[in-house]
UniProtKB/TrEMBL annotation, chain A:
Its main location: membrane. It is found in: Membrane. This is V-type H+-transporting ATPase subunit K. It comes from Methanoculleus bourgensis. It is a multi-pass membrane protein. Pfam families: ATP-synt_C. Keywords: Hydrolase, Membrane, Transmembrane, Transmembrane helix.
């Protein structure tokens, strides 16, 4: 894969770039994932809360459960970069 | 602390003649939670629901009138500042003397206002109907009163040519064009057809005389004049609000109390001669209230303390130190604790601000939020809102403290290096020192997670012993211990294989068997014992095993969310200062000044946005860690709210 004309610096820079790309993908894709997951839960939770305000706490709890996915993505990204 | 307030269950029996005295006494103490009497159908114990005391309907109808006036004047008792407290006897006297006049005045004003509003609407409607006719220079009388001619007036898509003898006026000065056609009656139908083909829409001629333009102006002026009158009436109503708000809210309060007292017997059970009521009183008030009742009735009362059978029926009141009480709001959003379980308010009150500060550790943002929470306290008057603001002010103080430790102000560094782990990212090449210590911070977060979850499980063991009994309690305790064992077993095994900074390094321990060292073997034993412990209560719970990892790792958000907020702040600084403002400062030109102003705007907007995001991120994620990761380990909730019979007078005094 390494071209003959590449110096060590170029290889290192491209490695850094790959890492950054990977970090970006990790956050972006997990963000989409938790967004999709929270979409349905959030809609249902708002409906349930409108019916009965007492379930707000439970509704919030259920809504944020998929958020863990994007946090994992963020953790992976940070570990990749630092 | 850590337990809801202790309650006593009472049965009060007294002759019906004492109802008024007892209700009055209970209401005054404001501690008795009435258990509503529900008659069982078909039971033969001869109990029936009591009747309201005399005067209930009078007080209720007076209260309705006062509420109506309050809403007409836009007075909300929740939001009225208490200026003076009026003595109850004076309010009662004023209800007789002053109130009828106020009611009459307000009702009169409201009635004339709605009459004027109707008139105004009428004039506006007329003006709207006249508008198209203004385009036709013809008096309104001339449209009417023909026997041999038909008049068409209306909107039309475009001008048309009519074959029959006719007179026509077309104007495209108004919306949808205006056409007026006068034809002899015998040609009426063919002309109508021609017009309809061109999209004719008839509009009736207004029932008025004179030039349309003059009439339109007259109506508009009339509408404007009435608007002025309405404004004057609104001013008068505002004046009444200004003068009588204190009195009206005092009346509201007094009459509400009267109605509540008078209707209390509806919640009691009665026989022919006596009434009985069941309810709850906090333990510390018990003796005092009992004595007061005996004294007030001259010993014509029977009070018995009953056994507490079912803890789900006990009303729950928090008992926490003052600094922790605003946090009760956050617990109530989730669920009020059950009577016999641990009340986690105190722990949340301490840990929530710490988590918030860890996430949003920034002196600048902390100061903004602190100022905001203190400032809003003057505006927000509702009970819940104020409690939330207090929680926010504690959290922002913690945020300032962590900001000093992290050495952060609006994303830039304070004059000293970070006292704990640095979060300064290398954005725009601005980072000094040793850069962000992300890995260390992450491990600290994991430690916090491990300890927090361990605490939760230990509380789970305590709760299980309190709530359940016998075999069930043992099973629940073993299951919680099993979860703990599994978690720490996994950790021991990780430590035995990998050396992780800031964590015990157990890789060097002597190997026992199969390449596993002592720590790993202990870990495996703990893990297996733990899994057995979980399975003995309910094998299905084993599918939840992965949550051990995910819940612990979830605490990484303490660092991750915080770092993202730091990153946004630094990017804003870099864009606004580094890219927009600084290049212009080298040589100041008129255009440069504008660009600098734009840069300042970008800076302000960015930080305002980041403050809002920080508040949301810091608040929601900290509370979520409690709700999802902490509470699920031990907390059931679902207690009934303690709602004492009585009222704390705000606007009146006895």
């Amino acid at each position: 894969m390494v071209d003959v004309g590449m110096t060590l610096e170029m290889v290192q820079a491209s490695q850094m770039g790959m890492k950054a790309l990977g970090a970006g993908l990790a956050v972006g894709l997990t963000g989409i994932g938790s967004g999709v997951a929270e979409m349905g839960i959030g809609a249902a939770a708002v409906g349930a809360t409108a019916e009965n305000r007492d379930v707000f706490g439970l509704a919030l709890l259920l809504t944020v459960i998929p958020e863990t996915i994007v946090i994992f993505g963020l953790v992976v990204a940070l570990l990749l970069l630092f | 602390m850590l337990r809801p307030e202790r309650m006593r269950r009472l049965l009060i029996v007294a002759p019906k003649s004492e109802t008024d005295t007892i209700v009055r006494e209970l209401y005054r103490h404001n501690v008795y939670h009435i258990e509503d009497f529900v008659p069982e159908s078909g039971s033969s114990d001869g109990l029936s629901i009591g009747h309201p005391l005399s005067g209930a309907s009078d007080a209720a109808s007076a209260l309705i009138k006062i509420r109506a006036i309050e809403s007409a004047c836009g007075i909300d008792p929740e939001n009225v500042e208490v200026r003076t407290r009026i003595p109850a006897s004076k309010v009662r006297a004023m209800i007789q003397t002053d109130l009828p006049a106020i009611i009459e005045e307000v009702e009169g004003l409201v009635a004339s206002r709605s009459r004027l509003e109707a008139q105004q609407k009428e004039h506006e409607q007329r003006a709207k109907e006249l508008e198209p006719f203004v385009a036709v220079p013809m008096d309104l009388d001339l449209y009417r009163g023909y026997t041999r001619f038909s008049v068409f007036t209306g909107h039309i898509a475009h001008d048309v040519t009519i074959d029959a003898p006719h007179e026509k006026y077309f104007s495209d000065k108004v919306d949808g064009n205006m056409i007026v056609v006068v034809v002899p009656n015998e040609h009426r139908e063919e002309v109508e057809r021609t017009l309809l083909d061109a999209g004719f829409q008839a509009i009736p001629v207004p029932d008025e005389t004179g030039a349309p333009a003059d009439r339109l102006k007259a109506h508009q002026e009339e509408a404007r004049r009435i608007e002025g009158e309405i404004a004057a009436i609104n001013g008068k109503i505002a004046g009444i609000r200004e003068r009588h708000a204190d009195f009206l809210v005092a009346c509201d309060e007094l009459l509400t109390a009267d109605v509540e007292r008078a209707e209390a017997p509806l919640r009691f059970a009665t026989t022919e001669e006596t009434f009985l009521t069941e309810g709850w009183i906090p333990e510390r008030n018990f003796e005092k209230v009992k004595e007061a009742l005996v004294r007030a009735t001259g010993d014509r009362i029977y009070i018995q303390e009953l056994e507490i059978e079912d803890d789900a029926r006990v009303p729950v009141e928090y008992e926490n130190p003052t600094f922790a009480s605003p946090t009760q709001m956050l617990i109530d959003i989730y669920a009020r604790p059950r009577y016999s379980e641990i009340d986690p308010t105190l722990m949340v009150a301490i840990v929530f601000p710490i988590f918030f500060g860890m996430i949003l550790g920034d002196v600048g943002y902390g100061a903004i939020l602190l100022a905001m929470s203190l400032g809003l306290r003057k505006i927000v008057k509702g009970e819940g809102g104020r409690m939330l603001l207090k929680v926010l002010s504690y959290a922002s103080v913690s945020s300032i403290i962590f900001g000093i430790l992290y050495s952060e102000i609006f994303g830039s560094a304070l004059p000293w290096p970070a006292l704990i782990f640095s979060r300064h990212l290398n954005i725009g090449g601005a980072a000094g020192g040793h850069g962000p210590q992300v890995v260390e911070l992450m491990i600290i977060a994991i430690w916090i997670g491990l300890l927090h979850i361990t605490l939760g499980r230990i509380l789970g063991i305590v709760n299980a012993r309190k709530i359940y009994s016998g075999k069930h309690a043992t099973q629940a305790v073993l299951s919680h211990a099993g979860w703990l064992g599994t978690m720490w077993g996994i950790m021991l095994m990780i430590w035995a294989f990998y050396a992780i900074p800031l964590m015990p390094d157990l890789t060097g321990l002597p190997v026992v068997a199969m390449g596993l060292n002592v720590a790993a073997v202990v870990g495996v034993v703990l893990l297996v014992a733990g899994i057995l412990g979980i399975a003995q209560e309910n094998p299905l719970e084993l599918v939840e095993l992965p949550t051990i990892i995910s819940h612990v790792l979830s605490y990484a958000r303490l660092v991750a969310v915080g770092l993202s907020s730091v990153a946004i702040a630094m990017v804003v600084n870099y864009i606004a200062i580094g890219m927009i403002i600084e290049p212009q400062l080298e040589a100041i030109t008129p255009v440069g000044v504008i660009i600098i102003i734009v840069g300042i705007l970008v800076l302000l907007m960015g930080h305002a946005l980041n403050t809002a995001l920080g508040l949301l991120g810091g608040g929601l994620h900290s509370i979520r860690l409690h709700y999802v990761e902490f509470f699920t380990k031990f907390y059931k909730g679902g207690g009934k709210k303690y709602n004492p019979f009585g009222m704390k007078p705000k606007f009146t005094e006895e």
